[in-house]
Known about the structure:
It contains one helix and ten strands, in the order ββββββββαββ. By secondary structure, it is mainly beta. The strands form three sheets. Strands 3, 4, 7, 8, 9 and 10 form a six-stranded antiparallel sheet that branches. The protein has a two-stranded antiparallel ribbon with strand order 1-2. A two-stranded antiparallel sheet has the order 5-6. A hairpin with a 2-residue loop joins strand 1 and strand 2.
Amino acid sequence: MPYEFQGKEVEAGGTIKFSTPGDYVVGTLLNMKPNIKTDFGLTNFWSLRAKNGSFHNSLHNVVDVEATTISEGDEVGFFAKPGGVLDEKIKKIKLGQIFKVELKELKASKYGAGHEQKIYSVQQGPMDEVIGEEVETE
Length: 138
């Protein structure tokens, strides 16, 4: 899923980074890969097949002005800190279930700009009858 960021085409690799209130994705939960080692510590990666969405990508705390559109059928995912608020909300979603994640608000942090607390809304939908048989478990 390529997109333009600061005048350059970048390959997103299917990873969503919720950066701006209103960023969201709607899709069917396909799998979760736990405890992935990153530069920021261990994290979980949640994968889904999208129905729709949009997000403002960010790189080194610079947020893109234009939103990247997520199209129906795109296989995308996002990281969530194990045991964090977003991770715990997503754990309530069943594999093969349609859901929506939206970044609702950024709250100031004692650590300053670039470290705001992200407030998410997670809405559960029905099971996806078409994809339900295809989901993976790990």
